[in-house]
Amino acid sequence: xxxxxxxxxxxxxxFIAAGLLGFGPAQAEGASITAVVTGxxxxxxxxxxxxxxxxxxxxxxxxxxxxxxxxxEVPEPGKYTAxxxxxxxxxxxxxxxxxxxxxxxxxxDKKALFPVVPAGEGGDSGGSDSGGILAGITVxxxxxxxxxxxxxxxxxxLGALGLSLIFGTTGLSNFAHGELITLGAFTTLVLNxxxxxxxxxxxxxxxxxxxxxxxxxxxxVLWKPLRKRGTGLIAAMIVSIGLGIALRYTILFFFGGSxxxxxxxxxxxxxxxxxxxxxxxxxxxxxxxxxxxxxxVAWLKGSRLGKATRAVSDNPALASASGVNVExxxxxxxVLGALLAAYAGVFLGMTQNVVWTxxxxxxxxxxxxxxLGGLGTISxxxxxxxxxxxxxxxxxxxxxxxxxxxxxxxxxxxxxxxRPQGLLGRPERVG
Length: 431
Fold this sequence. Notes:
The protein is α+β, with helices and mostly antiparallel strands. Helices cover about 55% and strands about 15% of the residues. It has helices at about 1-20, 140-170, 175-195, 200-230, 235-255, 280-300, 305-315, 315-320, 325-350, 360-375, 380-395, 405-420, and strands spanning about 30-40, 50-55, 60-65, 70-75, 80-85, 95, 100-105, 110-120, 270-275, 275-280.
């Protein structure tokens, strides 16, 4: 009786947290184009008008805000043309590559970059999505994409490590793990923009709340009862798919579909480091991510509970017979997985935008990293994340950005044909 009441209370707390302080229902937004207008030092340029049109007669217009962003909602996916009104540009500057961009919107939000340079230095880079496959490939661009790939790899590694731990200890392929990333980002968003806490305070609190509520609480309310009832792994996987969809659209209902930013560090100027460009927040967030990953691996390999976790991952029945509290280990793994995923969400939200589909778009790359590195291996999940992250970014040299995730999945398929156990996985004898 008491356990049932506890589960009901936890569910209610989750819904209250999602709608904290009057977040009202919001309808799903359509596709959109976000124009990003930045100066030579990557600082945002405000007050610039951007017009969007298509062949069917649609016209839309918006003015860049203090962050250099202008978002125009479009009626449906398709091909659009975004054009900067040059009359609204500051005096003595122009758009590098010309003021017009051809945009192919497949789904969600598509960004169009409009870098501002001094007049006469516009060159012919940038421009349309179309063009030669190898056009615009330079050493500087390759180095920049590698740096971007490393940053993306750290975000993927944070999510993949938790996903791998949950799979290793429970056998569950958790298709709702992407939503743990989204929930971490939105929990911090509520604390930051609704409660008014500075992001430096809101982020740690949001990560801890996410670990407790979305990690420990989710396991106690849903997964622990299912394990006790002997629910099969296929059925549990289907439950995770349904849970992921439910959480995703609950977030959409309360927060809407438009991308939003945290109150601090949104329009931060960047730093030029020779041929590459990076923002200070990306550097700090990456260092913290490395510390998270190193601490997690050290805990798993050095602590008593970490060794118990590895024992449960290898053989749950034998670990239980040896005196290991398997349920306690699984609860800790869920907390750790949600904590890492929450930080990944904050990391992603600070470097890009907070949007209801952010975890969904990252989910396939998480699975690709775990499978590529070797199922159930901690080091493999991290190594696979870096292979996937760098491959995804470098692939944009050849394929459109909307298809970059497919390159990582293709790489995973090819590698598994050659090495079925993954990069660091152990070969298993079948039959």
